[in-house]
Design goal:
Keywords: Membrane, Transmembrane, Transmembrane helix. Helix content is 42%, strand content 30%. It contains 3 helices and 7 strands, in the order βααββββββα. The longest helix is centred in the N-terminal third of the chain and has 24 residues.
Length: 160
Amino acid sequence: MQDTEVLAVLRASTPRRVLGVVALGSLGLLMLYLALVQPSAMVWQLVMVALGALILFLAERMWRATSHTLELTREGLRSDDGVMIARIADLASVERGVFAFKPSNGFSIRLKTKAPAAWQPGLWWRVGRRIGVGGVTASTNAKVMAEIMEDQMNRQAAPD
């Protein structure tokens, strides 16, 4: 049986979650409104309707994605719906500095091997060997999770 002790939990901050979704939703509605009231060429109206619909879709997707939490266990980083985001054994580095390419209030992970692309808006994304964690999360919790993850990575790499 594998150890499933949860070492750290990262969830979306409710005010940031609501603000992010409202901002996206407002932008989508504004695009649709402008498409309907602004006299312009039919092509531009269709483009604005398509963009407005896409932005509203992303706002809804962000709302669903940020309802989940991320859990760090000794095995790796996973979502509470069972999706394994990164295994500790596959970590190359954890970056959380000011100049690191990372989401706001979060951190970045570099893997040893490529992983399939995935995206949960406002919570995490994965492209190739890079993973970004954060967005509408609390920066303090993300920092703690990154530190524990670095510690787990270093313990696994150190000889016994």
